[in-house]
Amino acid sequence: MKEEQIKKEFAAAKEKYAALGVDVEKAIEKLNNVSISIHCWQSDDVSGFENPEGELTGGIQATGNYPGKANTIDELKNDIEKVLELIPGKHRLSLHAIYGDFGGEFVDRDQIEPKHFQTWMDWAKKTGAKLDFNSTFFSHPKSGNYSLSSFDPEIRNFWKEHLRRCRRIAAEMGRQQGDACIHNIWVHDGEKDKTVSRIQHRELLKESLDEVMTEKISTDYLKDSVECKLFGIGSESYVVGSHEFYMGYAVKNNMLLTLDAGHFHPTEGIADKISSMLLFVPEVNLHVSRPERWDSDHVVILNDALLELSQEIVRSGQMEKVHIGLDYFDASINRIGAYVVGIRSTQKAMLQALLEPTEKLREYEKRDNNFQRMAYLEELKAMPWNAVYNYYCLQQGVPVGDEYIQEIEKYESEVTSKR
Ligand code: RNT
Ligand code: ZN
């Protein structure tokens, strides 16, 4: 797209939005402050570097075998750097514990230390992408149906030690980057079929978490967040860390709650949960994902669910308390493309929400003018928000419109197809 054309379309859009009382420059500025936490695991189908040949367990699945996945830390870094070149704004990288730099040695989960992530912290310093962290309870011989909630005290101890170490690693990341690292805790524990000892396992999960959390770490460095789930492959009937479990846990312990778009009943969205949870937990962490009929972790696209979520984040007036992280892994398409589409779509949804004349809509609402509210919400859908996004990309010196597609094709022919 020609620069002149982009500017012309932006000027026209600006005028249209101004007529609704919306300041587009302000919206761009706010969008530019939205740091998306990019998940490292789309790049290599959740393999990691602890035991890359190992099986992915824990009830999650990356389907497809598109060529070019990242096999080494360097390949992963290159891929993420390429992604960062193709999107506007400053973003974060979310690492799982199995993505450490183990120097070719096997380091078990109860042995990992900050030093195994030092090269990542150095990379973060260099690129400016701050880090978030995730403990990894899945894909390990000691994580069958149950880990932190196992009846076997030795298994529980092993995973408690893992969690303890992950909190310290995340805190060290937070310290080095001068900004709290969000440490996401997702525990796959559960069972395929009708489980009788539901409360017993939940008691054990609570007990294990409580014990590890007795180690107090400043939220200047570390923010722990707990992620619930309804079911997984092989845990269809029972997941210990259900919504009620973690909602209760987060509220009781004043910690963050992670809402994953795929972790509820099929027609239940996470958008409407934001305004409730913000009243009871200090901050909310999101795993933006796209469930297609189940928690399938498809690439995020600009759909109604994403737009509703963005609207709720913006309308809450507490954007700084909602952390946007991505969580999907599609192994059937170009993985860099999967990242870029997901990130750009998330930004487009956020931008649309930021371009809403919310006060105007609230006025109609107060007066019970609900036809007018509905009509404006419909009109807004066809407003030229994309011209604003294109202009933002131009400003930031990244590809505009569909230009990123050829960049990805080039990277594929020069880099990923040769792996
Ligand atoms: C699984 C959870 C979890 C994982 C990642 C890899 O259903 O969503 O967040 O996807 O930790
Ligand atoms: Zn998730």
Automatic annotation (TrEMBL):
EC number of the protein: 5.3.1.14
Cited SUPFAM superfamilies: Xylose isomerase-like
Principal subcellular localization: cytoplasm
GO biological process, one term: rhamnose catabolic process
GO molecular function, one term: manganese ion binding
Localisation: Cytoplasm
NCBIfam families recorded: PRK01076.1 (NF002203), rhaA (TIGR01748)
Name used for this protein in its record: L-rhamnose isomerase
Species whose genome carries this gene: Petrimonas mucosa
Designated gene of the protein: rhaA
